[in-house]
Design brief:
Blueprint (H helix, E strand, L loop, with lengths): L1 H4 L10 H8 L2 H24 L7 H28 L13 H10 L3 H8 L4 H4 L1 H21 L4 H17 L7 H6 L1 H18 L6 H20 L5 H5 L2 H20 L8 H8 L1 H21 L7 H34 L4
Helix pairs in contact: 3-11, 3-14, 4-8, 4-16, 4-17, 5-6, 6-8, 8-11, 9-11, 11-14, 12-14, 16-17
């Protein structure tokens, strides 16, 4: 996005689909993350409090606070300082509400609403839109489990969110480009599918034939939606492309959970990225801006584009891992210990 804004023709002569698959799948990556998040939260909740009606609301919220709050609050403090110092690319403009409105939106889970109403915030703030969707899920999920699970109504509610997801990205977005991508309902179908996947595989073992079919179909769906996205414009227009993507991800999640699949050592760097994905996500824009400014200040050498991409990914991963190890995880453990939570 930085390269495109600067009108650098880094993709000149390359097929549109290739570039879309390599560097413009960010929204699809978030959708896959939502599916994984729904699965993980539901699975952990089942292991800790099964049945779900036994969930302890206070403990659930404390656990989420310990994981999310330390880094989020630190990020907001840093971004506020950079805004007050008038550092380029970090200043929240008055037309989007200024610093106070951005802070309020971040702390009350509606950065996505603010941006849909007033326009995009600076990039380091903009990424918090997905956290707003996640936090609303964390807020209401335990309440739904506690109130609805006993009569299997929870499954019906989750299926309703799956059905409403495509409408959240189309008809209910009312032509608002930001809300088309950032709406609560537009992400909740993936989260709901992840929750349903966890409920499906909990306490039962699928047959080898079923797992083979799920794995094959899930792989085919992911390859199609990620590598041939430009040919799915018809599905995108009715909002089903993202639902299909989440469904394919959940198929593979189910297979991995049922077979207790262990990744080969070759992809361990990706596993490590996944383990500190929260830290990578909240801090990666600092790396993006630093390396992009370095690239621009050295004459925008086109031959260094690939190195720019690879070094950004590498340093963002290393930076996120360092933040997790030095700051967020120690605080997470401390807050859990203080609240007598394991």
């Amino acid at each position: 996005m930085r390269l495109r804004i600067a009108k650098i023709p880094y993709a000149a002569g390359l097929p549109d689909q290739l570039m879309s698959s390599l560097v413009w799948n960010g929204q699809r990556g978030v959708q896959i993350f939502f599916a994984i998040s729904g699965f993980l939260i539901t699975s952990v909740t089942l292991r800790r409090w099964q049945p779900l009606t036994s969930i302890r609301l206070r403990d659930f919220y404390r656990l989420r606070f310990a994981r999310i709050a330390p880094l989020l609050l630190a990020l907001l403090a840093i971004l506020s300082a950079l805004h007050l110092a008038q550092v380029p690319n970090f200043v929240v403009k008055q037309k989007t509400g200024g610093l106070g409105q951005a802070l309020f939106a971040a702390l009350t889970f509606h950065v996505n609403v603010l941006e849909a109403e007033r326009g995009y915030l600076p990039a380091n703030w903009d990424i918090l839109w997905s956290l707003s969707v996640e936090e609303v899920f964390y807020l209401f999920f335990p309440l739904l489990c506690w109130l609805l699970c006993r009569g299997k109504v929870l499954i019906g509610v989750l299926l309703l969110f799956v059905i409403l997801g495509p409408f959240g990205r189309t008809a209910l977005s009312a032509g608002n480009e930001v809300w088309h991508e950032y709406s609560y309902l537009g992400g909740m179908d993936a989260i709901a599918l992840g929750c349903l996947t966890a409920l499906l595989v909990s306490g039962r073992q699928l047959s080898r034939r079923s797992l083979w079919i799920l794995g094959t179909c899930g792989t085919a769906v992911l390859v199609t939606t990620l590598c041939f996205s430009l040919r799915l414009k018809g599905l995108e227009q009715i909002g089903l492309d993202m639902t299909l993507l989440a469904l394919g991800a959940c198929m593979l999640i189910a297979v991995a959970a049922q077979t207790q699949w262990k990744s080969p050592r070759l992809v361990m760097p990706l596993v490590m990225l996944g383990q500190c994905s929260y830290e990578v996500y909240l801090t990666h824009m600092f790396i993006v801006f630093a390396l992009f400014d370095f690239f621009m200040s050295h004459g925008r050498p086109m031959g260094a584009i690939i190195a720019l991409f690879l070094s950004t990914i590498l340093l963002a991963g290393i930076g996120g891992a360092a933040v997790a190890r030095i700051y967020s995880e120690p605080l997470n453990r401390f807050l859990r210990k203080t609240a007598n939570l394991k």
